[in-house]
Amino acid sequence: MNSGVGSRAKLDLYYHFLALIQQQPHSQLFLSYFQEIYEGFLDLFLPEILQYRSPQYLNNLSAFCEVMRDSGLKELSDTAFVGAFENLDVQRTAVKFYVGDVAGALASLNVKLKTLEVNSGESTHDTFLLVLDRLQQAGITIPDQLEQIKAMWDAMAGGISVDSVWIPLVEKGQAESGLITATIQPLKVEVELRRREATRDLIFFNNHPMGNSDLLYYQAVDVVSVAKGLLKSKMGGKAPFFRVMFGFPDTEYFYTGESFGLGMCLAALSQMEKVTIQRTQHATLKNCVITGGVDVKGKVRGISELSLPAKIEAFYYSPFHTFVHPEVNAIVFNKTSS
Description:
Radius of gyration: 23 Å
Structural class: alpha/beta
Number of strands: 10
Largest sheet: 4 strands, mixed
Oligomer: single chain
Distance between the termini: 35 Å
């Protein structure tokens, strides 16, 4: 954990370590281990780290805490950790709604709803809104957890965006360690027009020092070239030069590779249109997760088959509705009916 891995990978390391201990008899013999790690373990119980995990994964985290308590670790009852356990409970309920397990989600809240007919063709979000509506009709007070889930769902996957796109990512170095976990992050693009006398585009990435030999730099150059080519066809002339800034919210740890080239291109095009023709002609749906590379001719390239399963898993346990991927990466998957 001290070798530069990201927070999600750290939680996975704790998870696998505690899973090994849980298989052993006499858990109280491991109290000294628990006393050493519990604080760093619970510090990772944050919404952005607990997101995109399976219900079983989250249940096991709760079970690990019970084992630690049963072994004699009294610190877990400290009020300082109330927020951590609340975050875990919210995510455990949310992910059940994301995958369509309405009965399981309501049971975790101790909420009983007698009549609820769910159309198999409805999205999980529509089903969630139906639950809220039925609770109000029944005169049942909406639990705070459901209010939090609604706000989170709306913020992440509601409406459209002209400056960002959701990308499934694997942290750098995870493939080499054999421990691969994916996350989904909003890639934001800021575009500014350069002066008339400018002779080239300026391309930056907020949390990655790009060099001319870097894989990400080549992808960014290709993306800007493709977006400008599409813009040029709409403007009927030569496209101007731009200052383009790409970036993810997490600036402490960066991601790299070609798998978010398609998302970069779509978001860049939307912003270029906004600053040149002064109107929005294209935007991305916020309930879509987009992955894939782009070459200099605009052709979509496939992504690594090694990281693909982790990305699909993260999407499945997310509030997003659609997974957009290169055609070459054949996937048989239907979130609504699964």
